[in-house]
Amino acid sequence: MSKKKRSRPAPRAEPVRRSIAFAGADLWESIECRGYVSLAQNPEICTAVDTIARLIASMTIHLMENTETGDIRVKNELSRKVDISPNNNMTRAAFIHWIVKTLMLEGNGNAVVWPETRRGILRDLKPVPPAFTAFVPDGVWDYRVVIAGQEYDPDDVLHFVLNPGSYYPWKGEGYRVALTDVANNLKQAATTEKSFMYSNWKPSIIVKVDALTDEFASAEGRSKLLREYIDTAQAGEPWMIPSEQFSVEQVRPLTLSDLALADFVQLDKRTVAAILGVPPFVLGIGDFHRDAWNNFISSTIMPVAKNIEQEMTKKLLYNPDWFFRFNARSLYNYDLRDLAAVANDQYVRGIMTGNEVRDWIGLSPLSGLDDLVILENYIPRGMIGDQNKLNGGDNT
Prior knowledge:
Layout lengths: L24 H7 L11 H16 L2 E7 L2 E5 L2 H7 L8 H13 L5 E9 L2 E8 L4 E6 L3 E6 L2 E3 L5 E4 L14 H23 L6 E5 L9 H12 L15 E5 L5 H4 L1 H16 L13 H27 L5 E5 L9 H13 L5 H7 L36
Antiparallel strand pairs: 1-2, 1-11, 3-4, 3-8, 5-6, 6-7, 9-10
């Protein structure tokens, strides 16, 4: 049986080679922004996050008790531990700053703190780096916190959450997805500006030289031509060049204003401010406004602070009447005259004592100012009915 001859494939046509030339390839490589852009390395995002973290960390943490007549402050060893030294190696300001910064940056909406207790007494609050933590779903509703390979029940650790997720409500999502594109744009803008500042492709004078001259063939020859005809001894001295071989033109290189880079950067900064909830002037855009600052404290700072204080109240306190509360009054921007006017108005109505007024405006207490007085003769409130004019006496 004869073998069938295999048909040889038709010869493949030679591919058409096309050469593409890029003008200024070195310049393009210096402007192009490559690599991963971390949110923690972006100046604008770091400025906004650091502002939020510093403000929350500067507030004192009060241990309060809910009574029938209102909330009163409790001062004991627990309140001192949480407000002064929650961690043996950190102050309260540094500890809260780490929690907020981890929530908004490295932790991607999650920050874990392990409370060390002994015989039911809180000894230390140890922050856990985000790289050592993981969250594993347990069934439909529950989850486990894994720290360095060891599982913990969520009730045994402090799990602070920012921007809860839709699929796992107990896990935070942060703002990484929303800020990624803006961070890349700001990084590209910074790279472009730096490239324009250091680029050599910005000559203001172009000298056309006849390429047939022998001096133009080498770098030494070109330098010799510049020294002979263009390099002058004094500023403003005219050039003496041969008309047949040289032609001088003045050019205007492309600038950052031509690219409208400042407008795009300002727009991206406003986007960062809107996502993180900070006023634009925090990022250097616009002027300071007191109302915008006070709204920033109420709408951005306090919700994050409430998240922290509620988690600490839920996991650290046994007494159902106790709770932690951040003191936010020092963060609001008030004029000293406004504070003094409010304090004086409450003092003459018998609502605040003299020492409470002094504490309101930042002064130390004095003896004899612990009684409530009321308008008229500034007498103690309990002696209002003992006035002579109310008991039939003379008006004097």
